[in-house]
What we know:
The structure holds two protein chains of two kinds. Chain A is mostly beta strands. Chain A is built from no helices and eleven strands. Chain A has strands spanning 3-5, 9-13, 18-25, 31-37, 44-49, 53-57, 60-65, 70-75, 84-91, 97-99, 103-108. In chain A, a hairpin with a 2-residue loop joins β6 and β7. Chain B is mainly β. In chain B, 0% of the residues lie in helices and 51% in strands. In chain B, strands 2, 4, 5, 6, 9, 10 and 11 form a seven-stranded mixed sheet that branches. In chain B, strands 1-3-8-7 form a four-stranded antiparallel sheet, with no helix packed on it. In chain B, β5 (44-50) and β6 (53-57) form a beta hairpin. The interface between A and B is medium-sized, with 22 and 26 residues.
Amino acid sequence: GQSLEQPSEVTAVEGAIVQINCTYQTSGFYGLSWYQQHDGGAPTFLSYNALDGLEETGRFSSFLSRSDSYGYLLLQELQMKDSASYFCAVRDFDYKLSFGAGTTVTVRA
Amino acid sequence: ETGVTQSPTHLIKTRGQQVTLRCSSQSGHNTVSWYQQALGQGPQFIFQYYREEENGRGNFPPRFSGLQFPNYSSELNVNALELDDSALYLCASTGSGNSGNTIYFGEGSWLTVV
């Protein structure tokens, strides 16, 4: 099975940088994905890492270390609209996703 | 806009009833999976279909069943509804090869069991 750990809540001010860590224990690993979910909405794909290193997409970056079973999502230049839940998810070779419990990010003015 | 559409968006059922939820996957995506998301939790994998065959199942009882049709659309059926089945049900569609790295979710169907 899969087990993922991520912090439950993070609060920061507009313009700040937030890092959400994710550690995982898996029986099968193909890659680590990150999703954003606003209240009542669908999870929206943010990034995917299959190899070690940093992937940058605009204000969001994601990092993976397979040897440490660890990844993080970096949110830069925080905006009010970034207030949402963020989930890390391990993808296995059959495209199935196992999600963490989610991190609620609250951005304050 | 992910190209994954689900219906209905909201519904209320009584304990013991049956429900069918529907999903149209993104064009060209032949893999469809279903997830259950209870309030305050991450989505939990129910099962997955590839070319009309179930090819993976999570820890859900047999009263959760599904179908995938030749056009790759899908249904999730839940029999003998229980109060704990109240959740957001999400459909996700996946392409093949490298496009399978991006898994797209629909807006979900909110099910309330009373």
